[in-house]
Design a protein that fits this description.
alpha/beta, 434 Repressor (Amino-terminal Domain), Rossmann fold, 6-stranded parallel β-sheet, 4-stranded parallel β-sheet, 13 helices, 12 strands, elongated, binds alpha-D-ribofuranose
């Protein structure tokens, strides 16, 4: 038999209203009464039933966060930042992994609505503009995460991925590389296509530089391994002298295939740069250069924008962080200056 608020009130010899105040507005109750009620809660093992509160308030004390791939530390770091910011407002985060799958993503959006979340943060898989507009029309604010909102109708927090792609390719070109391979996919993922576009622009500015694309089915270590094995299988004269991987997981896979499975030296034969600057990048057998995204800050900022909309304080706002080049051994050569952000 579950313990009710009435049982707690009886044991603490206070009214049910006082117990409710202790639970929801403790600042309105004397410290002695809070202590007495808390003792009764602990003694009876009372656990509040949020369903009743949700019915009254019309929403839960949580926000939904749907990310593309929870195996990717970029998204778990982002979720950590979001959770820290949400916790400051006594909100929890319901984390959903769309796994780059539109039907899973749709199921999570339904679940968030059923759970009466106060708002939704999402890195969309497909084009869900209409679905997100319906959410907002039902009073559930939405913030795009790690993705710009082109029309400006939604708040968004992202990094300038075109600029990040340009930064990565320009670094490879500055270290003397001229035959660059962009490893990433599918191109339907906006982050991938933007990074590729940035690299394309940088290469186009450099005479005799070339950029080829090795498209992958996903952004994982295994996909990177497969791309690296494909490169390793080529005659030496047909191999690139540098790889720009669309994220660090791919870069780790390419590194494994070239170095551990093959006899190719990184960076002497092939330089490699990734994207995100997750912990695995600096910890790799050859520390990986990368384009750093402030993943936790993206999560915190996204929650901030959501709370502003929940409170009706602000119109949709787009926040864009700038990417940062982190140079490590996987791209360094004698001509690469050891800058302050070299590790
Ligand atoms: O999930 C796709 C990629 O986009 C991640 O690695 C991260 O870079 C995100 O921006």
């Amino acid at each position: 038999m579950s313990v009710s608020v009435k049982d707690v009130a009886a044991l603490a010899q206070v009214s049910v209203g006082t117990v409710s105040n202790v639970l929801n507005r403790p600042e309105r109750v004397s410290a002695a009464t809070v202590q007495r009620v808390q003792r009764a809660i602990d003694e009876l093992g009372f656990v509040r039933n949020d369903a009743a509160r949700q019915l009254r308030a019309g929403h839960s004390r949580s926000i939904g966060l749907a990310v593309l791939d929870v195996r990717n530390p970029f998204f778990t770091d982002l979720a950590r930042g979001a959770e820290q910011q949400a916790a400051e407002k006594d909100l929890s985060v319901l984390l959903g992994n769309s796994d780059n799958d539109v039907s899973r993503e749709a199921r999570y959006l339904d679940l968030f609505e059923e759970q009466r979340v106060q708002g939704v943060l999402i890195t969309p898989v497909g084009d869900i503009t209409a679905r997100l507009a319906r959410l907002r029309s039902r009073g559930i604010p939405v913030v795009l995460v790690d993705r710009p909102s082109d029309g400006g109708e939604l708040s968004s927090v992202a990094v300038d991925d075109v600029g990040g792609g340009c930064l990565a390719a320009r670094h490879l070109l500055d270290t003397g590389r001229r035959r660059i391979a962009f490893v990433g996919g599918p191109p339907s993922i906006r982050q991938v296509s933007d990074r590729h576009e940035g690299a394309r622009r940088a290469v186009a500015e450099t005479a005799e530089a070339t950029l080829e694309v090795i498209e992958t089915a996903g952004l994982t270590v295994l996909e990177g391994r497969a791309a690296g094995e494909q490169l390793r299988g080529r005659p030496i004269g047909q191999r690139p002298d540098a790889v720009f991987a669309a994220n660090d997981l791919l870069a780790v896979g390419v590194l494994q295939a070239l170095m551990i499975l093959g006899s190719i030296s990184v960076p002497d034969d092939v330089a490699i740069i990734g994207y995100d600057d997750i912990d695995f990048a600096s910890a790799a057998v050859v520390p990986l250069s990368s384009i750093r995204q402030p993943s936790e800050a993206i999560g915190r900022q996204a929650v901030d924008l959501l709370l502003q909309e929940i409170d009706g304080r602000e119109a949709p706002k787009q926040v864009t962080f700038q990417p940062e080049l982190i140079v490590r051994r996987s791209t360094r050569d004698s001509s690469t200056p050891r800058s302050s952000n070299t590790t």
